[in-house]
Amino acid sequence: PLHVVATDEAAERSDFEPLSSDLLSAFGPGIALHLRARRMGAARLHDLATSLSAVAGHSGAWCVVNGRIDVAITAGAHAVQLGYGALSVPLARSLLAGRAWVGASVHTSDEAHARAAEGADYLIAGTVFRTATHPEREASGLDLVRSCASCGIPVVGIGGIDRANAAAVLRAGAIGVAVVGAVWTSGDPLAAAAGLLDVLTAGRPA
Question: What is the chain's pLDDT, residue by residue, as a tens digit (206 residues)?
Fold first, then answer.
């Protein structure tokens, strides 16, 4: 239910690797950690993904690599996330050869239905609410989540989501939420993740 996205700013923290390991160990199947550090070199990204994938494998969590299918394969990541301009889902799946799930990031209902038709395992849909991560994007609101959920595959909402609005995203049809600032800019990322998971567990439709 909780996808924690690590952008370059998060990945450049001096405590990023131990903190990420703690997140994966503490919350197990409740959490997926996305490595979206676009400024990071391939060798460092590979080493980091390898280490965190091993931790995730022990706890039942996911380590997800965004965009870099080569790194996802060689590091043993649990999923690869395809963003705008990435390879098609079928091509990514053929390269992965069943070694990882394939997620796709979408911003419109049309994109969602197209990626679902291509065979994506799940979608991350946004921007749901206004966010400092992408200030240039207008918020699409919960209607985007509802329309994407009609594709018939799991949808995770992203964009401006925190403890105050996470349950509403679930009620709109998402299976979970993806966050950046709600965890990484908090004073205590572990406590922030725990609080979000409490809300998500309580707000999950029966």
Answer: 999 999 999 999 999 999 999 999 999 999 999 999 999 999 999 999 999 999 999 999 999 999 999 999 999 999 999 998 899 999 999 999 999 999 999 999 999 999 999 999 999 999 999 887 767 778 899 999 999 999 999 999 999 999 999 999 999 999 999 999 999 999 999 999 999 999 999 977 65
Check: CB of residue 4 under 8 Å from CB of residue 34: yes
Distance CA 65, CA 78 (A): 8
C-alpha pair distances (Å), 78 with each of 89, 136, 157: 16, 31, 19
pTM: 0.95
